[in-house]
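Hi V.,

You were right to ask for the full record rather than a summary. Here it is.
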Amino acid sequence: MKILSIESSCDETAAAVTEDGRTVLSSVVATQIDEHKLYGGVVPEIASRRHCENIIGVTDEALCRAGVTLSDIDAVAVTNAPGLIGALLVGVNFAKGLALTADKPLIAVHHIKGHIAANYITYPDLQPPYLCLVASGGHSHIVKVNSYTELETVGKTTDDAAGEAFDKAARAMGFPYPGGVHIDRAAKQGDCAKYKLPRPATKNEYDFSFSGLKTAVINLIHNCSQKGEEVDINSLAACFQETITSILTDKFIAAATALGYKKIALAGGVAANSVLREKLAKRAEENGMDFYVPELSLCGDNAAMIGCQGYYEYLAGNVADMSLNAYATKKLHML
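Predicted structure:
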């Protein structure tokens, strides 16, 4: 089954053609990073306008690279939640138009489910059940993957997501957007024990809170500036990265252990962080767990992961109609 998929939840306009939920025939991403970098973060209005400009081109290129036409496609999948509402609406309405014109089934995909499904592309033999940590710019979730389409949230962020904290802390340190990759690079030259940073507490032991950690970095830089002291940015980056990855790793492994999982996975943009990947791989080995993480190209937003998840949504009978809408927020268990 060949699926044409569309992803436009934030600042990447993406289209892909996938087959049977595991094989990527083409994947095209038009990034807006250089433009949003000027403002230190994503500007929703600009993102929506660029999606309008790019979506036809990336879709045509995805079909061309896959060597197929729209008539060869069996279904159209699209991210309809969560994300920037204006950006999502561009993708949803474009996908609805394609499905209606070509008389193809329309499949709605939850963005977090898509990130998790990126693992199925990297690991064709991976099957539920397993526990997954989803860490990205807008999400920090520990998720029970009970089946391909039935997921249950165990823990989530109570304020800033991990990727959001990376970007905001990086901006305070003087790094450009997106900040995660710059912190990762700078940290390799720093001392991860030089500065003491807090580990915010949460009521639910598997929830996350990164707002206080981000604020601590900003305050440290501000206080040093007031005193005329120089901040060792590389070491601050290392300390921040060590703290946030330790929090993610400790809570995720604790949840997996308590819930009896021997198979765990990582997904989302922050899954590209080298230290987080290393920490989880090491802890998984120490605890006798099998660990899965997507290849780097599949960690960020892309449409291939949406097509993969769309395949399993279709098999489960989750087909949408022309009343499909976009939602800025949406719980995982909701269709």
